[in-house]
Amino acid sequence: MTGAGAIRWIMIVSGALTCTMVTTAFTPAETLRSIFGVWPESPETDLVARNWAILIGLMGALLVYGAFHPAVRKTALVVAGASKAVFVTLVLSQGNRFLSHQAGIAVAVDGVWVLIFAAYLWSSRGRRIAATH
Fold it and tell me: What pTM was estimated for this model as a whole?
């Protein structure tokens, strides 16, 4: 499988998994508890969690879209990769506080995605991305 063919499937899998966070918009308290081990302390926290869920879902959709549209592939990888890198950095900036919850798994998985996205972008720099359908 070529680099373009492999990244397409990587983007589909990563995007689909990322899209699952949309469920947080429907169950913010339960999701925050399972991911971070905390309950929302206010209606505002609930609101922010719902918005966060939709934004993460949009990052997943962007990855899937980029997998099928080579013209936006690099942009999708940069934007979604940056979002994932910020999440990883923010969670790790809290030390071990959240790592024993599902956030620890998310940090590990998102960290791997970021490395893969960065490796692909680095290896394809200066090249036009060909369509792979």
Answer: 0.88
